[in-house]
């Protein structure tokens, strides 16, 4: 170890004390200096000898509207924790709130620690938010988001194709006027789901009606209130809606029923996630089931593989979904008396 540090000192010109502080993630070392030292340490094979003995599960909240205390994220955390224990790694959960004054310093501390692998829940992150993680010193796997032209291992749902299939299901049921209940916070998942909706409509050669896109807050109460405001103007509704997720769908359903609309007789709705209360809602919500525990398990497996092999090849893993048909979609092809 001493010889390695001496060699890094010779190659970089920095003192052994500075090199030790940089490699051990101690504050007081200039960022450019630390990156130069790390680069040389990697080139001579020193960094790869550091043993990774734990996994940090970093939950990043930009506004907390999507990443909240819901069954979706509870199941995801359970899947991560179980997979880490099975692999023999301790799990430490970090919650980063972008609104906190020193959140960037906390991130710097996490990404400079090369003794732990990182699972990053990036549901609410933007491309700009992700840039700081490009300087991570340890193995990193991103969950629930994907960013083009950024070199990260990623595990997420097959969002676009899943929504395309849901729109095709509505067409098979005779629906032609199909709207979109859109989260007004545009996460990467929501953006991909919106793309799936638009592509399916384009393939069916049905022009998009901007009046049929309703922007709703992605919380149960927020979606309900926003939908009430929308319905208060007396708009013409499509025969069916695709929602960005179950929470938005259920909030909208509550508002629709309050305004006297019958589901699915007057309007059909499809959600995404298959949360537990989607099955017991009235009517039961037709939705797209996403396997949250499996996403957590697969992300851990990929991270452990990177830790053990010191792998540099990145991959994008999309988890297939399952369409769950319940009672919230009307079959327009059936003759009604």
Automatic annotation (TrEMBL):
Keyword Endoplasmic reticulum: no
Pfam families: LacI, Peripla_BP_3
Family annotation (SMART domains): HTH_LACI
GO molecular function, one term: DNA-binding transcription factor activity
InterPro entries linked: HTH_LacI (IPR000843), LacI/GalR-like_sensor (IPR046335), Lambda_DNA-bd_dom_sf (IPR010982), Peripla_BP_I (IPR028082)
UniProt keyword terms in alphabetical order: DNA-binding, Transcription, Transcription regulation
PROSITE patterns, alphabetized: HTH_LACI_2
Keyword field contains Ligase: no
Residue span(s) of domain HTH lacI-type: 4-47
PANTHER family: HTH-TYPE TRANSCRIPTIONAL REGULATOR GALS, LACI-RELATED TRANSCRIPTIONAL REPRESSOR
Protein name: LacI family DNA-binding transcriptional regulator
Protein's organism: Massiliimalia timonensis
């Amino acid at each position: 170890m001493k010889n390695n540090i001496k060699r890094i000192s010779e190659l970089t010109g920095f003192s052994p004390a500075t090199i030790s502080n940089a490699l051990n993630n101690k504050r007081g070392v200039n960022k450019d200096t630390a990156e130069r030292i790390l680069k040389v340490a990697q080139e001579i094979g020193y960094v790869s000898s550091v043993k990774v003995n734990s996994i940090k599960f970093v939950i990043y909240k930009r506004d907390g509207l999507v990443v909240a205390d819901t069954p979706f994220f509870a199941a995801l955390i359970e899947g991560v924790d179980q997979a880490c224990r099975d692999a023999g790694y301790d799990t430490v959960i970090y919650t980063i709130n972008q609104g906190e004054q020193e959140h960037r310093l906390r991130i710097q501390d996490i990404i400079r620690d090369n003794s732990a692998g990182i699972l990053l829940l990036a549901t609410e992150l933007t491309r700009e938010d992700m840039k700081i993680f490009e300087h991570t010193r340890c193995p990193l796997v991103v969950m629930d988001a994907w960013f083009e032209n950024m070199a990260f291992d990623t595990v997420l749902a097959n969002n676009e194709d899943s929504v395309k299939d849901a729109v095709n299901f509505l067409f098979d049921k005779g629906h032609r006027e199909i709207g979109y209940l859109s989260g007004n916070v545009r996460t990467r998942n929501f953006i991909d789901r919106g793309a799936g909706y638009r592509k399916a409509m384009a393939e069916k050669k049905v022009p998009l009606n901007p009046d049929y896109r309703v922007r709703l807050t992605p919380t149960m109460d927020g979606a309900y209130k926003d939908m009430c405001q929308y319905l208060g103007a007396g708009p013409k509704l499509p025969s069916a809606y695709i929602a960005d997720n179950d929470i938005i769908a259920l909030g909208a359903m509550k508002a629709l029923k309050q305004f006297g609309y019958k589901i699915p007789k007057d309007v059909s709705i499809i959600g995404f996630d298959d949360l537990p209360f989607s099955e017991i809602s009235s009517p039961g919500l037709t939705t797209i089931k996403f396997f949250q525990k499996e996403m957590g398990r697969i992300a851990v497996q990929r991270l452990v593989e990177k830790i053990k092999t010191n792998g540099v090849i990145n991959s994008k893993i999309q988890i297939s979904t399952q369409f769950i048909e319940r009672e919230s979609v009307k079959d327009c092809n059936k003759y009604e008396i």
